[in-house]
Amino acid sequence: MEIPQHFYTHRKLENLVENRTTYTVESAELNVYETHHYAEEVILQFHQPVFASMIEGKKIMHLRDQDPFDFLPGQSVMMPSNEVMKIDFPEATENNPTRCLAMTVAPEKIKRIIEELNYAYPKSDEEWRPSSINYTFSNDEAIRQIINRLMFLFIENHESKDLFVDMMLRELVVRILQSENRFQLEARSDTLSGSNRLATTLRYIKNNLDKPISVTELSEKVCTSESNFYKIFRNELGVTPVEYINSERIKKATQMLSNPEVKIKEVYMACGFNNISYFVRAFKKFTQKTPSQFQNESKTLY
């Protein structure tokens, strides 16, 4: 994620800790926070739902119902209204600042988007609902592009900014809902697997990553057609079945490769890949590194 260069021509650096630059549209507000000094237990609270994403540096976040965690570039968190963030800045300096965006969105705006989603693309087992949890996740390519575009639009100050931002917000909200739904189903797959088709599917995939898995096989297990299964899966989880299977296989591979003694051949076979060339391409697509590079870096930390 990159801050557009014209941001620096307009912002005023008045505070060394959480210096705030704000841009607004009708239904949302974008804040860019910069910290140039070590600090602990800095409190932030927003009275509207807020989407926060790291741009540069490192924070340690303390959120309700979660252990403290490192908040790094490429990660985001979606929080409901009035949530309190307690933030540490262990590495922030003048030459190594921490930068983070925090975008608040009017609750009625989110409500309208969800109403439209329930009408046009309803879930198979329940309605789409606003989030009530602090949901932390790693940005996929689609969300990274949306964040970059939103930052450009807020800062550009185009005459049609409200319209442009509105369209991007719709996509961002839907993609976050799909991502969170995927997270919730994974977390509850054992308890939901008897009554929820997607939970049953995710549990089966997780338990059979070392074997060939086809969309035909998955659709048969939940007693629906391939086309309907594909539609439900992508609508509710935001990815295709094949994309999800590959991401889970790579997740397992990264866990195995953190052991410097394991052989790469063992890894790709255990993760259901037929040949090493395809495994290397898939691994690099998801991690931006080859399996060898990932394992070598892990050795230095082992």
**Mean pLDDT over the full residue set:** 90
% residues in beta strands: 15-25%
- Decide which structural class fits the backbone: alpha+beta
In this structure, how is the largest beta sheet organized?
6 strands, antiparallel
Shape: globular
The count of β-strands is 10
Give, in spatial order, the strands making up the sheet with the most strands: 1-2-9-4-7-10
Which homologous superfamily in CATH is the superfamily of the largest domain? Regulatory protein AraC
The sequence of SSEs as H and E is HEEEEEEEEEHEHHHHHHHHHH
Q: Helix count?
A: 12
The CATH architecture category of the largest domain equals Sandwich
Walk me through what this model shows:
It is a single chain. The protein has 302 residues and is an alpha+beta fold. The protein folds into two domains: 7-184, Regulatory protein AraC (Jelly Rolls); 192-302, Arc Repressor Mutant, subunit A, CATH 1.10.10.60. 47% of the residues lie in helices and 19% in strands. It contains twelve helices and ten strands. It has helices at 7-10, 107-120, 141-156, 161-187, 189-192, 197-207, 215-221, 226-237, 241-257, 264-270, 276-287, 291-301, and strands spanning 19-24, 28-35, 39-45, 50-56, 59-62, 69-71, 75-79, 84-89, 98-105, 135-138. The strands form two sheets. The chain has a six-stranded antiparallel beta sheet with strand order 1-2-9-4-7-10. Helix 7 packs across helix 8 (226-237) and helix 9 (241-257) crosses helix 11. The longest helix has 27 residues, at 161-187. The mean pLDDT is 90.
